[in-house]
Amino acid sequence: MRHEAIINRQVAKVAQRQVAVIGGGIVGTAITEALLRQGHKVTIIEPGAFGGEQAASYGNGAFISPASIIPMSMPGLWRQVPSYLLNQNGPLTIRWPFLPRLLPWLVRFLLAGWSKARVTKTVQALSDLLSQSPARHADLAARAGVETLIHEEGLLYLYVDRHAYKADGLAWRLRADCGVKTREVEGEELRAMVPGLAARYTLGILLTEGRHCLNPGGYVAAIAQHCLANGATTHESCAKRVLTSGDTIVGVETDEGIVACDAVVVAAGIHSAPFAKQFGDHIPLEAERGYHVEFSDIPLDLKVPVMPQDLKVAIVRTAGGLRVAGQVEFASAKAAPNWKRADLLGEKLHSCFPGLVENTKKPSPHRWQGNRPSTPDGLPVIGRSRNNKNVIYAFGHGHIGLNAAPMTAELVADLIADRPPPIDTTPFSPKRFS
Ligand SMILES: Cc1cc2nc3c(=O)[nH]c(=O)nc-3n(C[C@H](O)[C@H](O)[C@H](O)COP(=O)(O)OP(=O)(O)OC[C@H]3O[C@@H](n4cnc5c(N)ncnc54)[C@H](O)[C@@H]3O)c2cc1C
């Protein structure tokens, strides 16, 4: 036993790496936590506050859903393109001036969902990534000492009627094929589960294994604090480029000096693509811009987060209040927010819960805009760079970054350790865009 322990320590010592993680959102902090558990030395490079408003991880819909395996691009989506261009109040919009630049990405996006066969492959890959996500988050939160942030009440997808539910039949069949567990909720049970719900909703699909995070930004901050307490260091700066000497990684140049390392993980969300380009990988990464409004003054007792399918928003009670998150807006990551889109979310809340009364004396709701880091095929980029095996990518998580962070972290830890992964990672390979 003692002998075995010594060998393990020696192996750990030989294998120990000095890793720089670029980006401290949910993906970067979860990776840091996984690498520390493997005995590596880790520095997180992050210019903002951990879990701060600059990160998509701050303002998301908080859903940890094993059902989030259906990509945005589905067969027949092209038919809706005219309405996306013409209706600036719809759930998905494209800002006209940005259309020419976005066109190549949008074409790839539409093609990715062109046939059922393509979508089925994407769904299978996402299922591998997400099927255990609720349990993995419970474990991660427990290790970080914030288990109370992950709530287990399930997640409820709302439909006006069975006709609307049947219109989403392909998505639910694909989910069922991947083992996603659901239960129908109707009548009195639905009213009791969601007090104040608009009468037009007659059917709920409860994801019994779904969870949500009570405070997505606070969760990131807590994981980061846990990492710092366990030996990670942080460099409060913006990474500029990776420094090499021949094939050897020697550090990361930042606007506040150099961080020495022998391996790099790129987890900078929407800002990741330039680092990949440095190593010969041209990843089509676009911002699917989203918004949230959060009302601190609405006392709605919403235990189970809901996603009304006619409104395409997530409504969830967080530590900060009642949050409505959603919208997909194509423009550019740098474009100014269109706060009308956030206000629309407030209107959708009232449409879902018509009896709600806001306290008009309280300040207006908190409004936020963030960038989902999205690839056209709806799959993240997790793998080694083309030109250097010690540069590892972990970005492009689009709509599922919170959900997928713990499994992504495990896959990155396996890459750093040269261990075979527990799932097929070829769908996530950066090479797929060659
Ligand atoms: C409205 C909305 C709702 C969503 N709802 C959900 C949901 O319910 N469930 C879900 O799973 N996902 C959801 N998402 C998606 C999810 O939020 C993202 O996929 C996820 O947060 C991405 O995490 P990340 O760590 O890759 O990026 P980020 O959280 O954006 O973090 C990247 C970090 O990198 C830092 N950075 C950037 N450039 C540099 C640099 N040069 N050097 C160093 N650091 C740098 C940034 O400061 C930032 O902190 C939603 C997103 C939006 C916008």
Describe the overall structure.
With 434 residues, the chain is an alpha/beta fold. The chain has a single domain, classed as 3-Layer(bba) Sandwich (FAD/NAD(P)-binding domain), CATH 3.50.50.60. It is 34% helix and 25% strand. It has helices at residues 2-15, 26-37, 56-59, 81-86, 99-112, 116-130, 133-143, 162-167, 169-177, 187-193, 216-229, 273-278, 339-352, 401-417, and strands spanning 18-22, 41-45, 63-64, 92-94, 150-151, 155-159, 182-186, 203-207, 211-213, 233-235, 239-245, 248-254, 257-260, 263-266, 286-295, 306-308, 313-318, 321-330, 366-374, 381-384, 391-395. The protein has a 6-stranded mixed β-sheet with strand order 10-2-1-14-21-20, covered by helices on one side. Strands 4, 15, 17, 18 and 19 form a 5-stranded mixed β-sheet that branches. A hairpin with a 2-residue loop joins strand 17 and strand 18. The longest helix has 17 residues, at 401-417. The chain is globular. The N and C termini lie far apart (48 Å). Flavin-adenine dinucleotide is lined by residues 22-28, 45-48, 54-57, 59-63, 238-239, 267-269, 271, 290-292, 314, 325-326, 370, 372-373, 395, 397-403.
Known CATH architecture: 3-Layer(bba) Sandwich
| Main CATH class | Alpha Beta
Assembly of the depicted chains: single chain
Number of domains: 1
Quote the distance from N terminus to C terminus.
48 Å
Helix content: 25-40%
Helix-strand makeup class: alpha/beta
Bound molecules: flavin-adenine dinucleotide
Q: What would you give as the CATH superfamily?
A: FAD/NAD(P)-binding domain
Tally of helical runs:
14
The neighbouring-strand order within the major sheet is 10-2-1-14-21-20
Q: How much is the radius of gyration in Å?
A: 22 Å
